[in-house]
Amino acid sequence: MDPLHQFHIEPIVEVVVGNVDLSFSNAALWMLLAAASVYALMTVGMRPGALVPGRLQSLVEMFYQFTAKTVRDNAGPDARPYVPFVFTLFSFILFGNMLGMIPGSFTFTSHLIVTFSLAVVVITFVTILGFVKHGLHFLTFFMPHGAPWVLAPLLVPLEVISYLTRPISLSVRLFANMMAGHTMLKVFAGFSVMMVAGMGKTTGVVAAMGPVMINVALTGFEILVAALQAYVFAILTCLYIRDALELH
Amino acid sequence: MGGTRIHSWRHAIWALGLALALALGTGTAVADDPVPAAHGADTHAADAHAGDPDAAEPHAADAHGTDPHHGTDAHGETGHGDGGHGDGAHGGDHSGGMPQLNPESFPGQIFWLAVCFVTLYFLMSGVALPRVTEVIEIRESRIAHDIDRADELKNEAEALAVKTEAALAEARGQAQTLLRQVIEEVEAHRAQRLAQVEADVAARLSAAETRIDQARRDAIGRIGAAAEELTGELTARLTGQRPHPVNIANAVAAVTGGKS
Questions:
Q1: Helix-helix angle A55-75:B129-239, to 10 degrees
Q2: How far apart are CA A61 and CA A52, in angstroms?
């Protein structure tokens, strides 16, 4: 009944390289499933390539165009080459979150190291993009426009710190949302079990309906959070790309 | 789109970012190296713990029973790490501490994340998304082409309508002139015929008049002669002597006004 049990990494196939444990775990399995589902959806959906799309093809096209529009609106028209990157992030996190809603599955986005790695990839990508596009001029990003130069010693460290905290806020937001939601579901489910165990079969089952009802509502809410957090991750990535492209 | 022309520097960025992420993860793991090493040695101890005193604890027993890896992996490590703090750590072995903070699982997760994410990225940018954009572009160009074609046809139809209208107007004009010509011709013909007929009628009329005049004159002439004869006869019967014809003629002429 441990609400954190669902977050345990359990190796399925042990892989040890040197003294580093790279075991294929339940987390890895669900990452693979998420990636495979995205790829399957995209290829199966687009297989007909019909001029007048069917249901699944419409879904795929809408999914793509929604992401492309998000990138265009938030990162600007110059960010078009980075649509695949944002799309991969968005779809991978979305499917990870959504597959995590299946009872008994594993939510790999509930692990800070995973979300942090993704955030580091985003920040590294964006920083390199900034330097590639603007060279050393990118460093002026850390000095707000129009601010007096006297304030530079104060402003530049602040901006640098705020820049460096981006991967932290980006990753913690996703991880905390997913973990909190799943823990809460488990806690309420645990209440039901405890009620049945503690109050007997009749009163216990009646009383247990309360937490079950709450869990029904929470599940709906969690599905919303799962989609929303994936979207937030994608949008923030877009905004960082815009910063790198336009140096605001 | 990205699929058709992937910049080589983007590959470089990818490689760099992932290398960084990997390094970060393995770095954490390597920093904790003594722990896993020690852990490896202490697994039995952890297992032993799990074996007896925890047997009273239903959760622990449960988890260990169903999953043989527990003891040797994540738990063993955290449990062991906390082991120095005392007995409470045994409970903590299972429920205490978030699995998310167990650095031993980091390299594996990062590694598989990198594998999945990079594979997915290349599949998306290289295969799946180009296909989507291709289909969408084909559709858009097809629609644009169809609209162009429709415009073209519409213009053609309009031009044709204008031409038809012009042809129709011309035909109508031609018909009009033709009609006018015919009317004029007919009119002229009619006038000519009329004049002819009138002339003919007039000629006949005058000929008839002449003839009538002649007949009248003849008749009147004959009346004078008859009157002179009758006068001579009457005078002879009254007077017994026949006057001279010239005198009779004069006398008749005097009476009739010289007309004969």
A1: 100
A2: 11
Please give the mean pLDDT across all residues of chain B: 72
- What is the 3-state secondary structure of B69-131? HHHHCHHHHHHHHHHCCCCHHHHHHHCCCCHHHCHHHHHHHHHHHHHHHHHHHHHHHHHHHHH
Q: Which residue has the higher pLDDT, A162 or B31?
A: A162
Pairing of β A20-21 and β A24-25: unpaired
- Taking the C-alpha atoms of residue A101 and residue A93, their distance in angstroms, rounded to an integer, is 13
As for the ipTM of the complex, it is: 0.92
Tokens linked to A39: 């790829």
HSE on the CB side for B193, CA within 13 Å? 6
**d(C-alpha B259, C-alpha B223), whole Å:** 10
A 16-45: CB under 8 A from B = 19-25, 27-28, 31-32, 34-35, 38-39, 42-43
Are the CB atoms for A135 and A195 separated by under 8 Å? no
- Supply the pLDDT for residue B24: 53
Helix, coil or strand: residue A104: coil
Locate all alpha helices (DSSP H) within A76-200, ordered by sequence.
Answer: 83-99, 112-134, 152-199
Q: Are A171 and A118 in contact (CB under 8 A)?
A: yes
Pick the closest to residue A132 from A188, A82, A98, A67 (CA basis).
Answer: A82
Query: Residues with Cβ < 8 Å from A163, sequence gap 6 or more?
Result: A141, A142
* Per-residue tokens: A227: 């989609």
For the cut 80, the answer to whether the pLDDT of residue B69 exceeds it is no
Which segment of A14-28, A221-235, B54-68, B114-128 scores lowest on mean pLDDT?
B54-68
User: What residue spans define the domains of chain B?
Assistant: 8-101
Q: What Cα–Cα distance (Å) separates residue A20 from each residue in A155, A205, B32, B103?
A: 41, 48, 10, 11
- The letter for the amino acid at A148 is P
Contacts of B113 in chain A (CB under 8 A): 31, 108, 114, 117-118
CB pairs under 8 A between A and B: 196
pLDDT tens digits, A45-64: 998 888 888 999 999 999 99
pTM above 0.80, yes or no: no
**pLDDT score recorded for residue B63:** 39
State the greatest distance between any 2 C-alpha atoms of chain A, in Å, as a whole number. Answer: 74
CA distance A176 to chain B (A): 11
- Identify the pLDDT of residue B25: 53
Q: What is the pLDDT of residue B253?
A: 81
Q: What is the mean pLDDT of residues B89-116?
A: 74
Looking at residue B228, what is its pLDDT?
Answer: 82
Between CA B161 and CA B57 the distance in angstroms is 94
> What is the pLDDT, as a whole number, of residue A199?
85
Nearest Cα residue to A30 out of A85, A139, A104, A89:
A104
d(CA A222, CA A185): 9
Minimum CA–CA partner of B101 in chain A: A112
